[in-house]
Write a structure and sequence with these properties.
The protein has 275 residues and is an alpha+beta fold. It is built from seven helices and eight strands, in the order H-E-E-E-E-E-E-E-H-H-H-H-E-H-H. The chain is elongated, with a radius of gyration of 50 Å. This is Band 7 domain-containing protein.
């Protein structure tokens, strides 16, 4: 009888311990679940982010700015939209006004309208670059380059840039995407056009060299003419001086004499020959 009571008491004690253990484990699980709910229900939003609230995977019009947020676990979800200035660079093949083939590389700086990120996500989700921006850049490049000749795309690069920016601003604003700046990274032309440009530059350089040479020759000729006129005027003045002052001729004769007297003189031979 005593043995039976012992085993009954032992078994009952073990059952109580097992129940206590499972209660402890269940309490731990519940605690972790509560902590998880609290952890996933609250969060912080960075200054450059805009968060959209989804409820049962449907877009709501409720958005959150920089601060703390709260969501209902397993019912609500949050989508992050970056509203900082972003960059998108696109390459597009187009044609100029004179039908030259051009490969243009254009970079767009833009940002999402912070107050309209919910509408953007509702329309295209997070694929606004692929579905809106990239096609619009390509379309704007083609429409803009078609208004300029290939040579003007080089000489009027700033005007081309302004044209592309104007088109992008006009097309992206209704989609709640704000254009900040546009840069033309590069224009690549066909090999034949590049060769034609090189030949034109070479011809212009040769023409400039020829003009410079002609100007130099003209200047040298004018110098020679001026020098000849100066010499002629000097000779005229000297002749008039000799004519009016015979003593100068005698002085020149003395200056040319080498101080050697002639060995034989004739009656009509001058003392010094000045020829």
């Amino acid at each position: 009888m005593a043995i039976n009571n012992y085993w009954s008491s032992f078994i009952e004690n073990m059952k109580n311990k097992i129940k206590s253990f499972f209660k402890w484990v269940l309490s731990i699980i519940v605690l972790f679940m509560l902590l998880g709910v609290i952890f996933w229900s609250f969060g912080t939003i960075k200054a450059w982010e805009k968060w959209i609230l989804l409820r049962f995977w449907a877009v709501t019009w409720q958005t959150y700015n920089e601060w703390l947020y709260f969501k209902i676990p397993y019912i609500d979800d949050m989508i992050i939209m970056n509203v900082r200035v972003l960059k998108e660079q696109i390459s597009a093949t187009s044609a100029s006004k004179d039908l030259q083939t051009i490969n243009a590389v254009v970079a767009l700086n833009f940002h999402l309208s912070a107050s309209d990120v919910g509408q953007i996500y509702r329309e295209v989700w997070l694929d606004y670059k692929e579905k809106i921006i990239d096609p619009t850049i390509q379309e704007s490049i083609k429409a803009s380059t078609a208004k300029f000749t290939a040579e003007e795309l080089i000489t009027k690069r700033e005007s081309v840039k302004d044209q592309i920016k104007e088109l992008l601003t006009k097309k992206l604003a209704p989609r709640f995407i704000i254009v900040d700046d546009v840069n033309i990274v590069n224009f690549n032309f066909s090999e034949s056009f590049n060769k034609a440009i090189e030949e034109k530059v070479t011809a212009e350089q040769e023409a400039l060299a020829a003009r410079n040479k002609l100007e130099r020759i003209k200047f040298e000729a004018e110098q020679k003419i001026a020098e000849s006129k100066w010499k002629a005027e000097a000779s005229r003045i000297e002749a008039e001086a000799l004519k009016s002052n015979p003593e100068i001729l005698q002085l020149r004769s003395i200056e040319k004499w080498n101080w050697i007297l002639p060995q034989v003189t004739w009656a009509n031979t001058p003392f010094v020959n000045i020829k």
